[in-house]
Amino acid sequence: MPKLPYTPGLDAAGVIEQVGSEVTKYKVGDRVYTIWTNTGTYAEYCTARSEDIFPLPLNVSFEEGSALGTPFFTAYRALVIK
C-alpha cells in the first residue's frame, strides 16, 4: 500500500511553472513531458527531476506528450526489442 496521502500517475505533459535554483536546462514556460514524477500526475501540479523531463515539440499535444513516457516505451519494448 502506498503511503498516504498518495497521488497516482507517472507520465505527464505540460508547461513548467517553476524550476529549482540548480536547474539550467529548462525555464518557466517551457513545454515538456515527463517519464517519472516525484509527486504523481493526477493533480493540477506535480514535481519532477530535470533528468526525467524532456522538451515537448509545438506540434505534439499535451495529450500525446503524456503518452511518450511509460506507454510509448512499453509498446516499443514489446514490438521492437522483443
Q: Your description of this structure?
A:
- A three-stranded antiparallel sheet has the order 1-2-3.
- With 82 residues, it is α+β, with helices and mostly antiparallel strands.
- The chain starts with 11 loop residues before the first strand and ends with a helix.
- It has helices at residues 62-65, 70-81, and strands at residues 12-15, 31-34, 53-55.
- The longest helix is centred in the last third of the chain and has 12 residues, at 70-81.
- The chain contains two helices and three strands.
Residue runs with pLDDT of under 50 for 5 or more positions = none
Inertia-based shape: globular
Largest sheet: 3 strands, antiparallel
Strand tally, please? 3
Quickly count the helices.
2
Radius of gyration over all CA atoms, rounded: 14 Å
Class per helix and strand makeup: alpha+beta
Short précis:
The protein has 82 residues and is of the alpha+beta class.
Task: List key phrases describing it.
single chain, 82 residues, alpha+beta, 3-stranded antiparallel beta sheet, 3 strands, globular
Write the layout of secondary structure elements.
Blueprint: E1 12-15, E2 31-34, E3 53-55, H1 62-65, H2 70-81
Antiparallel strand pairs: 1-2, 2-3
